[in-house]
Amino acid sequence: MDTDLSTSLIMARSTATQVSAQVAVVRKAHEMDLALLRAADQTARPAPPPGQGASVDKTA
User: For residue 14, what are the domain limits?
Assistant: First the structure.
């Protein structure tokens, strides 16, 4: 009986570790996808017209 219980506990712990690793891989893949989309979004946007950039044009 002790062997069955210890084997079950080891298998449960192993499964939990495997699921945790899978979640980490999926999370990292999602972060990489978001980074790629952000980079593509920033490069795909056209340049703003003069005077409408991120900084204030004080010469206007």
Answer: 1-39
Q: How far apart are CA 41 and CA 3, in angstroms?
A: 57
Q: How many domains does the chain have?
A: 1
- d(CA 17, CA 8) in angstroms, rounded, equals 14
Output the pTM of the full model: 0.59
3-state SS, one letter per residue, for 1-60: CHHHHHHHHHHHHHHHHHHHHHHHHHHHHHHHHHHHHHHHHHHHCCCCCCCCCCCCCCCC
Enumerate residues 6+ apart whose C-beta is below 8 A from 51. Answer: 57, 60
Most confident of 4-13, 24-33, 38-47: 24-33
Residue 15 lies in a domain: yes
